[in-house]
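Sample 3 of the quickstart, ligand alpha-D-galactopyranose:
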Amino acid sequence: MKEKLIREFKKVFGDGGEIKAYFAPGRVNLIGEHTDYNGGHVFPCALTIGTYAVTRKRKDTKLRFYSVNFKHLGILDGDITKLEYNKKDGWPCYPKGIIWTLKNRGIDISEGMDILYYGNIPNGSGLSSSASIEVLTGLLLRDMWKLDLTNQDLALIGQYSENHYNGVNCGIMDQFAIAMGKKNKAIFLDTADLKYEYADIDLKDSKIVILNTNKRRGLGDSKYNERRTECEEALLDLQKVVEIKTLGELSEEQFEIYKKAIQSPICRKRAKHAVYENQRTIKAVKALKEGNLEEFGQLMIASHKSLQYDYEVTGKELDTIVDAALRQEGVIGARMTGAGFGGCGVSIVKDDAVDRFVKNVGIEYKKKIGYRADFYVVEIGDGPTIL
Ligand code: GLA
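Result:
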């Protein structure tokens, strides 16, 4: 892949100079959904699919971007002295946001760059292609300009850029999972203080199968920011009766005692999901450590139900694919993953049942939704790397 992309880079931008290549993964979240902006736990892992970049410094202040995925757009121009957000700039808003964030932190990139990107994360699938580009850009800037930044910094810079440059109020999960990913491990992250531990993912004779509904999920125009606001409203009401900083501090029992303080029934449902999902995530990691995959699967199923009925972020496509998945032989658990409103589900399926599972769920989905779903049997990969 590296050689092929370097050849492509030279074809687009010309030969000469020091050319370097980088990779950052995508991510899938196993459990702990919509908890990361509520001070709760998440349990994501990095994938072996992701985004590649090839780059070279320039002698002027120009930025030139090219995506192998959007060849028809050609080279898109920018300039390091003109980083103001402009929606019309399209996908380069992601890398530009990272340079802009660094500038905000007093880290000045003094010269321009040519950068080629290529991603094999299905676009708009909810496997974090945007966070992958963000962390990847942070990594290449760190390496090219010898910046003193940790991988955790790269995650925070990515999130800052997403929140303040691209206007999506996301939590830290995606960028953290990508920047800190480790082969065959999921990350048990407490988003309240960013303490984390790696958990071995030993699925014995099972595999992680991602279920792509092919219903595109645009975070910006989705109801993501609305859900955040509803949780904040619930928290403000709760804070009148109990001393907490986040919903993640509450146990299920405490929530049941205090929930009446939440005025709006909708916000009460949203908060219930945040509290119960956080506790489910803690239980799921414990179950996995004890080798109890069955229980892990049951908690995944409960997670989906809560996202469907209390958080209301699933929608017809995700519900259809997860329902179909749960009716198959050899399935251990299935749920939506990521923000919701389309995108992907994640399931754990016994090795010897995978082929039949994919076939049957595919047929059922197409029959009910009218277009096809895609399936990926995935491996858990490492974090970002210099190639
Ligand atoms: C998106 C956001 C994350 C997280 C998930 C839902 O992926 O980027 O921060 O909130 O949705 O769990």
